[in-house]
């Protein structure tokens, strides 16, 4: 019972952390009864939203276990609660409050950063479902490929015709697919910045994060160079060509 309540409080904190960080002042309902009774309640100040998230994440960290057996892999742990609590403080500029929380996670949670660009790229491979960096994430099942970080929206019928070249996520984020979820240009531009106001620096993680360049370090090729970005492609007769525009997520997919 304690753990279940802790999980519920974790997701309350998780939800209001995101609501507050994305939209600021939002309707704040603190009980199940309020959810039904206050359908049109006014927005609360963002400070109140973050305070409620903080209250629930602190309670969750106290109630949740540090780890789970394999059968419960993916459930929120005390470290997940602390990670979002630290992020919540950072969102409010409370650096000195956040720092010891993250130090606790590093020193006592058993998490370590994988090394270099290879370690960064490794986070998005199907062989790395639970890395040393994984504190909390969604666990998607692959149809036909085992476990991984992809998802499927049509019960695996993305495999029509025996082809497993895509998934729901690739369709949503994809370079040659629907492109429903694009990385924004403003986010792309953050991969190039000045260091100490003098060095023009392009973040080397860009090439593993998005397609498209324009001076921001993105990957200019797709499918190991088969489809260079912004280069005309000869399509089969049954395919309607869609010209690539802007930037596309590279991680979350299995184009490689």
How far is the first residue's CA from the last residue's CA?
A: 44 Å
Overall body shape: globular
Mean pLDDT: 82
Uncertain parts:
none
- Major beta sheet, specifics? 2 strands, antiparallel
- Number of helical segments? 8
Question: From the alpha-carbon coordinates, what is the Rg to the nearest angstrom?
Answer: 21 Å
How does the helix and strand content classify structurally? mainly alpha
- The proportion of strand residues reads 5-15%
Instruction: Summarize the helix and strand pattern as letters.
Output: HEHEHHHHEEHHEEEE
* Multimeric state: single chain
* Fraction of residues in helix: 25-40%
How many strands appear in the DSSP assignment? 8
Question: Strand order, biggest sheet?
Answer: 1-2
Care to describe what's here?
The chain is mainly alpha-helical and 256 residues long. It has 8 helices and 8 strands. It has helices spanning 2-23, 32-37, 46-63, 78-91, 95-108, 116-122, 168-173, 185-189; strands at residues 26-27, 43-44, 140-142, 146-148, 192-195, 199-202, 210-211, 248-249. The strands form 4 sheets. The chain has a two-stranded antiparallel ribbon with strand order 1-2. A hairpin with a 3-residue loop joins strand 5 (192-195) and strand 6 (199-202). It is globular. The mean pLDDT is 82.
Which helices and strands appear, and what pairs or packs with what?
Elements: H1 2-23, E1 26-27, H2 32-37, E2 43-44, H3 46-63, H4 78-91, H5 95-108, H6 116-122, E3 140-142, E4 146-148, H7 168-173, H8 185-189, E5 192-195, E6 199-202, E7 210-211, E8 248-249
Antiparallel strand pairs: 1-2, 3-4, 5-6, 7-8
